[in-house]
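Is phosphoric acid mono(formamide)ester placement plausible here? Inputs below.
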Amino acid sequence: MKHFLDIHKTDPADLRRIIDTASDVKKARAGRPKGALDDDLPLKDHMVALIFEKPSTRTRVSFDVGVRQMGGQTMVLSGSDMQLGHGETIADTARVLSRYVDLIMMRTFEEDTLLEMAEYATVPVINGLTNRTHPCQIMADILTFEEHNGPIKGKKVVWTGDGNNVFASFAHAAKQFDFDLVFSGPPPLDPEASLDGLYSIERNPQAAVEGADLVVTDTWVSMHDPQSARERRHNQLRGYQVNKQLMDHAKSNALFMHCLPAHRDDEATSEVMDGPNSVIFDEAENRLHAQKAVMRWCLES
Ligand code: CP
Ligand code: NVA
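Reply from A.M.:
I modeled the complex. Tokens:
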């Protein structure tokens, strides 16, 4: 049984195979109605639980649609509506769910919740974002980069802003897919120490973005951050906004990515988000294709 818990916990050859499968399954159904079934149905007769402790638009809809396109059925569960949110242990929840469903996708606050679910579940568990990482997002981002600009190996990727959960999965990917990652943000918002050695730091955003193949940012205040941090974050991060002046330091064919949801004109201007280098909606679409490949991989024997 294979869980998809994090990029650094997945073998690079498997990661590459997942990206290639995602590309193939995307091409195979090009032009088909979104509700049409795929040619092969690896999730036929399969039931999938999608559990959310936090809000979601992309993760929720893309997993749901992806399962159905592959012939499976879904149930979307809110953590607070489950007994899990009212004192039942994660281990017991995992054992019970494993009697009903064939696959569990989970978005949690604490990483330990996800890890405990995976420890006690007897079906594969997929990480749909925790406070620490967001691996499915970065699989979609790698697919998106390679569709537009070829192999990501050896490329320069620059992250501006908060060293958060999405950055952490980029850092894991930098090692597994062998690209250079630069972090550009203020010291109080540096990535967690466990990621040291996976990226370099350049505090000056213009210098960081020089020669970049990809510029990435994310919201300045994540779902797990206290809302009271908002004003302080804005003051700390204003200088790291991705705007046209900053993008002009990158290569002319550099891509701009943001996992969304965005606070337009905070972390990135609408001019960049809607501009010629932006691939933000391709990223969102590719969540569907990448996660279908992740689910296939999890269910392979
Ligand atoms: N990017 C992403 O995970 O979006 P949602 O929070 O809408 O799922
Ligand atoms: N860093 C953001 C990503 C949302 C998809 C958050 O955790 O809220």
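Short version: The domain at 137-284 is CATH 3.40.50.1370 (Rossmann fold).
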